[in-house]
Amino acid sequence: MAGIIRVFFWGLLVSFLGSLPLGTLNVAAMQISISESILHGIYFSLGSLLVEMIYVRISLVGINWIRKQKVLFKWMEWIALAIVVALALGSFIAAASPHHEKNVMLDNQVHRFLLGIMLSAINPVQIPFWFGWSTVLFTKKILIPTNTYYNIYIVGIGLGTLMGNLIFIFGGRIVADKLSASQSLMNLIIGGVFTITAIIFLVKILIHKDAADKLETM
Does the first or last residue of the chain, that is N or C, have fewer Cβ atoms within 10 Å of its Cβ? Predict the structure, then answer.
């Protein structure tokens, strides 16, 4: 029982800390909570963390197959970059246009839970991240190769990701309310955040620090 509790908290802690740096999904969740509602932001986060949990579960049992999919991850990396750029442009367009209060990329009728699933599904950065941490936990005998340990580990990961995203969802909403900032200003700020994220993403790809290259070194 002690081992199961320990692997749960390791999954929760690593996932929570890994969710705090600026990224496509947590910033998108923040923007949705500001422009729509906190509930919609939570729906989006639940969809994204569901995919993350599925990816981790697959990686634990199919690591050798996934390592061979370098071309697939290369394409996914560029597609993910394109989405971040589109989100940045959408925020700037919304900031400049009086007719658009929301990011035009998020101004659709897709349920926010499904939108979170779709954006998370093409975000491969999380896969090598969890490969690395799972390997460490296997080495330390914290993560044991049994279904019980795997399932508890994944539950901890999902809860940790949700906790990290809630900081962005509630924090962004509180800051926006406290500053009484206009929607245009908030879109401009978030557009800048997405732009910085895209630049970091591009640099990693160009210097071969993307997901596909990380997989080769594991």
Answer: N
